[in-house]
Write a structure and sequence with these properties.
Elements lengths: L5 H20 L1
Amino acid sequence: EHKELPSVQMQKRDERSDRGERRERR
């Protein structure tokens, strides 16, 4: 089973947060 590293999960979460914040700031 492929386990995602914590760093990868953090990066994915950061990207999602950045997109949500940017969309709300539009």
